Amino acid sequence: MNSFDPQRTFIHEIGHFIARELNKDVFKIGLGVDEIYITGNENFFTSKNGAGGTKPKKPKDFIENNIVYNPDELVAVLLYGCLFQSIYYKTKFNDCFTIQNYASGKKDAEHFSSLEKYISGQKRKRIVEYLDDEYINVLNSCPEHFELINKLHYEDFILCIRDGDYIIDIEKLRNELKPFSEEHASYYKQLIDRIKIINSS
Question: Is this prediction's pTM over 0.90?
Fold first, then answer.
């Protein structure tokens, strides 16, 4: 069972944050992140919002139509929460990224599975295998790269509490993570390139 741990949720959401921000800055896709929230409810697994979330910025005239325009970059966003969590806690990626009850990445894994129209199940499997077998090892081989992430604590970034949720100060987090994001861009490009190769094969 996934126990209540705001710090774990914070690290998980930082992964999603980095992916969305790099999609914007490197690939000119999306508008980055609007908000990160972490539930203050110990019974988060009964909540429709789960343990937390990273909300993307949307244009003022945005109309939801359920069409995915950039599936390759969306896949990276979905994978990056559990990627960061597994590196930070030195746990197995698939212990997080699974549709099993109470897994931190359950909703991410479910969303990933729903992309059949854009990326077949076999290709999705190959993407996860690449990330789990190769990409994580590349990142783990450079522990100094994650030193900044390892020093972050959610309590230092709480902007306010809203309806029992901790709202993260996005601008403070963005400024704090700027050096990491700039350095991480080359790694992220490597993942996106591989996802595109797999999806186009």
Answer: yes
